[in-house]
């Protein structure tokens, strides 16, 4: 997808700042910092799990997808505050779905915190269905999936 690329080490300061800003509004709702803010982005970049969407030579969005024993997991999607409402989040989700299909996965999984009602509504509109709820690492998470084939 145009504008989306695998992140490199030089992107780390911008990635960390963008993610922290994007999730800041959820801190009061959750009662603590959102999980994605605490992720080890240096390690994730080394694993080629982080993708960035650029707009006007700045990172407008961050996507983290992880391949593992449970399949293809969308671990994080975040959009820069001043870039929200421009469809970048949807573009990153579409990119994740396309990437999953190219890698041969039949399902894309994701999770979100139960208080992130805006995200839950968006995922539902895009065809994701809830699979289960769990408390994990002190966060109340809702897991969802979408068939890719």
From TrEMBL:
InterPro entries: Acyl_CoA_acyltransferase, GNAT_dom. GO terms for molecular function: acyltransferase activity, transferring groups other than amino-acyl groups. Residues 2-149 form the N-acetyltransferase domain. It comes from the Bacteria. Keywords: Acyltransferase, Transferase. This is GNAT family N-acetyltransferase.
